[in-house]
Amino acid sequence: MAALCLRKLIHQATRNETSCINKYFDIPLTQTMQKTTFSQALMVMAGAKRRLMFVPTKSFCTTGEAEKKPEGKKKPPNAQKTFGSIGRKIPQRILHVISENGDSLGNMHRGDVIRLMNDRDLKLVPLRENEEPPVYRLMTGKQIHEEQLKRREKQKASSKAGPVQLKELTFSAAIAKHDLETKIRQIQQWIDKKHHVRISVQQRNVADGPEKMLALFDQIVATMPEKATYLSQPRVVKEGKSTCVLRHMSDKEASEYRKMEKEKQTDILKEEHGNQTTESSELQ
Fold first, then answer.
1. What is the separation of C-alpha 165 from the centre of its chain, rounded to a whole number of angstroms?
2. 78-113 as b/e, with b when 16 or more CB fall inside 10 Å?
3. 103-to-16, 69, 99, 110, 126 alpha-carbon distances in Å
4. Which of 71, 107, 73 minimizes the C-alpha distance to 92?
5. Which of 13, 67, 106, 143 could cross-link to 139 by cystine, CB 3.0-4.6 Å?
6. What are phi and psi of 247, to 5 degrees?
7. Is 36 a residue whose pLDDT tops 70?
8. Which has the minimum average pLDDT: 46-60, 99-113, 122-136?
9. What is the pLDDT of residue 63?
10. Where does the pLDDT of residue 250 fall: very low under 50, low under 70, confident under 90, or very high at 90 and above?
11. Rounded CA gap, 115 and 49, in Å?
12. Residue 17 — very low, low, confident or very high, per pLDDT cuts 50/70/90?
């Protein structure tokens, strides 16, 4: 009974698929199954299923376009190149060469550069490869190592510094002395953190002119020698209001400031010494 039911199901399934099978394989499956036994019918169905199996294949393209190869990981455009020697594989023929002492040797052929490297036991480091001709420098191993250490320290310092913030402070030109000292201490704290500080001073009595407001800015900067300087000079924004922006001095600016102050003190001492000499000569 079970075999009879299974045979009816197979007959019904094959009847629905006969048209498709005959179309592609020209196999009269229904007639064959009617003349075969049950086991043979199962074998025929299995063979038909195998013949109807779809095999995935690559699509054929007649446009002649080559298959794109998977590209490796690209470096970001703003990635910095490592500072160091390029060895003796110099891609350019003509180079502008700087000696290990910082002197310009002019344009040289790469063969002459390699000969010079061998004679002096030096290494070649690219400085500005995008120029025409590209600029390279001859350096010793010790010089390269020291420069790499400097760049690492500079990179660490810049990463720790973080983005520059702009702080703002507004007060009146008639501010009391104690309140002004409190404001200056706040400005000093911001300057020590390398922030920019915008100071706005308002003046009620417009008839007095902006001189009092501008003098107040110089007074604030004078309390922070070797630290604060103007990012934007004091200016009158509108009638009765002036503003400026302060920033922290760079190391170079601080050294120049100390040098100028030292020269001023020297000139003052010379002037005082000259006055004393004049007075003593007059007394004699």
1. 19
2. eeeeeeeeeeeebeeeebbbbeeeeeebeebebeeb
3. 92, 47, 5, 18, 15
4. 107
5. 143
6. -140, 170
7. no
8. 46-60
9. 45
10. confident
11. 76
12. low
- What does the pLDDT read at residue 132? 87
- How would you class 34 by CB atoms within 10 Å of its CB: exposed for 0-12, middle for 13-18, buried for 19 or more? exposed
Distance CA 241, CA 69 (A): 65
Contact 90, 114 (CB under 8 A): yes
CA 101, CA 122: separation in Å to the nearest integer? 12
Residue carrying the six token digits 């001492």: 269
Per-residue pLDDT at 124 exceeds 80 = yes
31, pLDDT greater than 80: no
Average pLDDT over residues 26-46: 50
Cβ contact 97:125 at 8 Å: no
Give me the residue label for tokens 């790499």. Answer: 148
Measured distance CA(119)–CA(90) in Å, rounded = 17
Q: Which residues pair with 30 in a beta bridge?
A: none
Q: Which of 223, 98, 240, 89 is nearest to 173 (CA)?
A: 240
What local confidence, expressed as pLDDT, does residue 33 receive?
A: 46
Q: What six digits make up the tokens of 240?
A: 């009765």
